[in-house]
What we know:
The chain is 9% helix and 51% strand. By secondary structure, it is mainly beta. The chain has a single domain (4-184), classed as Lipocalin (Beta Barrel), CATH 2.40.128.110. Strands 1, 2, 3, 4, 5, 6, 7, 8, 9, 10 and 11 form an 11-stranded antiparallel beta sheet that branches. A hairpin with a 2-residue loop joins strand 2 and strand 3 (42-48). The longest helix has 10 residues, at 4-13. The protein is globular and about 50 Å long.
Amino acid sequence: MTRFAAILLAGFMFAGIAGAAELGPIQADKSRLAFVSKQMGVPVEGEFRKFAVQMSFDPAKPEAGKAQIEIDMASIDAGSAEANEEVVGKNWFNVKQFPKASFVSSSVKALGGNKFEVAGKLTIRDKTRDVAAPFTMAQQGANAQFEGTFTIKRADFGIGQGAWADFDTVANEVQIKFKFVAAAKK
């Protein structure tokens, strides 16, 4: 139910190809924006199937990197038709009123060894919070792969209201996992 946020941040983290090459659009079939929440202590995985990412990144100048992601909140797969129906409703993502979530980077910094951290503003349900997410970048032939994991708190975004506000049933912490693959523009 709280798998929402994972997807948001994932997009922005994925930055670029070595040698300051421009990146093309992400390869959707090789990219993933997922989340893990805990319901009554049991991990539950989900993902967002539709998201758009714009980015530029040069690992030699990470501070110049920029990323923006937009997530179609109705594209959530929370593991079952019943769960999907619940999480798009008013108590969770309220997709009728808030159909998109977004992330806009404000900084990227090198952590060493092809590891980086992107910081920026994450907006879900019209609530904006500062977030930071570590990620790795790996060159795979003509492609660049960006992968990372970070945690957000669903209550910071008003996700899980009413009977779902109790953290004993669904934990406040949601782990976001992302993997983005992009090719250099030719």
